[in-house]
Amino acid sequence: GQQVMQIPQYQHVQEGEDFTTYCNSSTTLSNIQWYKQRPGGHPVFLIQLVKSGEVKKQKRLTFQFGEAKKNSSLHITATQTTDVGTYFCAPPSAGGGSQGNLIFGKGTKLSVKP
Amino acid sequence: NAGVMQNPRHLVRRRGQEARLRCSPMKGHSHVYWYRQLPEEGLKFMVYLQKENIIDESGMPKERFSAEFPKEGPSILRIQQVVRGDSAAYFCASSPVGDRINTIYFGEGSWLTVV
User: Fold this and answer.
1) Residue A102 and residue B95: Cβ atoms within 8 Å?
2) Considering only alpha carbons, which residue of chain A is nearest residue B111?
3) What angle do CA B5, A63, A80 make, to 5 degrees?
4) Are B69 and B61 in contact (CB under 8 A)?
5) What's the angle, vertex CA B51, arms to CA B49 and CA B53, rounded to 5?
6) What tens digit of pLDDT does each residue of A69-98 get?
7) Chain A partners within 8 Å of B31 (Cβ)
8) Of the residues A23, A97, B75, B79, which has the maximum number of CB atoms within 10 A of its CB?
């Protein structure tokens, strides 16, 4: 079945350091979403990527979609304590799954030391 | 512009009781999704509903779980005869009418604890 792997599972950084999380799929994706979930909170939509090789930026966050549309990454420049949380990539379910049927990996849990 | 509203936020049930979780989608959204998140895990899709229709229930357990989205009122996720393994956070999400893209917006969740 379809699998989504995110690495690393945990990342501890010093405030000001950069952070990157990688998302790999066993199948080619039509699109991919990224969500952030703060401890005890709910997933918050960050971005959607659709095109092969697409790069999108949101302030200190840079999202990339691989040329083959099987992987994606999120890079945060100069992390801040407000970046703490778990970052999930979430592609749609393969095999004709309905819209909104997203596959979430275990995510990357980011902690930032002040 | 209110987001996705879920209640109760926290619910404690004894084994064998029923749990009912409610969800009102964002204004202008008529597609509702339920996800479950076990501790330290990602979210798992359960069901996708539109008004009075279940569109995709491929993630719903075969027994004890049901969902509805009536013509009037919120969507309800119902868990009968709860067991300890049902303890989890249940998130509802919604998306706009006619939106073919997979972006969905989550509510703050309902945390179910079965004792």
Assistant:
1) no
2) A40
3) 75
4) no
5) 55
6) 999 999 999 999 999 999 999 998 876 567
7) 99-100
8) A23
